[in-house]
Amino acid sequence: MMLRRITFVRLTSFLTSCHAYQQVTRLPDRSCCCYPPNHQSMIFPTKRNIQRTGLKRLVLIQVRAVKMPHFYDPSSSANASHYHTAHIKFDWNIDFTTKTIGGAAVLTIKRVSHEKTHPPLILDANELSIQAVKIHGNDVQWKCVPHKHPVLGSVLEVTVPSSDPQFDVEIAYKTSPNSSALQWLEPELTADRKLPFMFSQCQAIHARSLFPCQDTPSVKATFEAVVHAPKEAVVVMGGVRTKQPSVSNRGDQWMIYHYEQTIPIPSYLVTIACGDLASERVGPRSSVWAERSVVAKAAKEFSDIEKMLAAAEHLCGPYVWKVYDVLVLPPSFPYGGMENPCLTFVSPTLLAGDKSLVNVIAHEIAHSWTGNFVTNSNWEHFWLNEGHTIYLERLIMEYLHGTQMRHLLLAIGYEELLNEVNHLGTTHEFTRLVTKLDGVDPDVSYNRIPYEKGSLLLYYLETRFGRDKMMHWLKAYVKQFGGSALDTNSWVEFLSKTLGEEAKEKNVNWDEWLHAPGMPSWKPKFEAEEAIAQCDSLVALFESDELSTKSAVTASVLKLWKELSPIQRELTMRRLNKRPELKHENLRAIDAALELSKQQNAELRFEWSHACIRSHYLPALDSCLEFLNSTGRMRYTRPLYRSLKQWPEVLTRVHENYKNQRPFMHRTSATLLAADLGVN
């Protein structure tokens, strides 16, 4: 069901710290409406609405209908309907001793409303020590105001002294050692154990603890950065280096780095890392960065980056970001990859040694079009970023490796979707593509639904409207919305417009796909029947009662395993974990034959660990915990800890393991794992 267009209205200034713009469907030129506390929308004071809200007293406010920029983001306090950040100048000093970044951010602010008043500029800020604020070089009044919801942090409210259409706000500040955007690692937690390491992770709403900002995907800005760092360390950022590093004017113990990003990006894509890094060139526009002992292995693993970029350009149009580099982070990084423009962050779990997990690189490359260039307007529409990117990732892999590869990835994705829905529950809010996040930390809502249900919708549309039309639409979509942000309604409107009358004739059930919880009723068919049948044959052998007693069965397992491609092996293990728990003697025989507890492929190691934990196979517990402690990637750690929670006999040891490992975890991982385990 399509929603009606909405009009946004301006409230009187004393409500600015609430949501400055609230939704109404029809509003006369001058009228009265009410804003009950904690209510999402403005309400007209009719008898029905008074009864519906159950309020004893309504505060009436005079409003006037005005056309304003569309801005709604429950995860941001910024008043982006008044002001937009156009450009940012960073002058940063990295201090490993205090575990802080200090300096200044100069925000070039543009007015986007046409009102004669000039309300305060409101920026998101969290755990920042603000020291001074100036506009055009002059001190101005400012204050930090704690937000009512602990997730959103404080706001920095800056008095705007004039009605200039554009002005520069210079903010001197320092981050907190507890900044949720930054992780500081001691040398012993790095691969080479020589220097400390720092990296940022701003998605979803952590940029506000790195710098004061309009921390919403709706606002995009360019940036330039000057960064001072200890001379023995190397600084990399999600932009293009504009000068060679040189000795800082702050002393010969410091080096200075210069970066810029000329394409506007949202705050969550601002990124920085600093440590004992080296790089190797792997293509005409790509280098791989890593610690010195890791960089050669990483460069070999990711040597096909240029082929992937070329495939993505064939599908979506030119790559606009100039360079595409990859940084392999220490193991505590909580994600498989993060699509920072010009500098993708990846987990060392991708270094399988045989390029079997490089589809993650294809995924992050795809984000250069869907996510970074075309962006969800807020985190309620996260599927617009990730669903399109999974869809494009698999098209890239098909372009390079054939149709069967794409369909095996589709099959794996469908298994993931089923698992996630089963875990969350078929009626859970977070199983909808378009979610409600008012008062909810986007990190808490993070799961595989936006990825797999979103990409399944696009694949469904491909089967309904044809491959050629979807490929035409994909290029048109990037061209139409590149450089901007959109919501799901705009997406549906453009899709319907692009596909024309056929879209109306085929009558897609948008309400089921976009707003209903649980699994969609449509089930895909995969063009890889023979390859999938091989996987199922091996699963049957794994479950055989004769596996542990007859050498011929064990030999068949080993033979078939060797015949499978890495992606088939992964699908086999996923399908095994959909089956009932295995007998312990079967698990023992499988590991003896295939040595899965020693696998370098992290996906296989994860699935094997999951199979052992589900079956309460005690001889594998040490191996499972060793794998858990070797990675911070939440794709692995959260499901395994949740499974371990269901094993009462080992729960004390599991809690002790978490407690011992927590100091080495990324803050986001540690918080979410604590919730999964039910511990403080």
Automatic annotation (TrEMBL):
Binds 1 zinc ion per subunit. Residues 1-20 form the signal peptide. Keywords: Cytoplasm, Hydrolase, Metal-binding, Metalloprotease, Protease, Signal, Zinc. It comes from the Eukaryota. The active site is at E364 (proton acceptor), Y451 (proton donor). One of its GO terms (molecular function) is metallopeptidase activity. GO terms for cellular component: cytosol. It comes from Fasciola gigantica. Residues 528-677 form the Peptidase M1 leukotriene A4 hydrolase/aminopeptidase C-terminal domain. This is Leukotriene A-4 hydrolase. Pfam families: Leuk-A4-hydro_C, Peptidase_M1, Peptidase_M1_N.
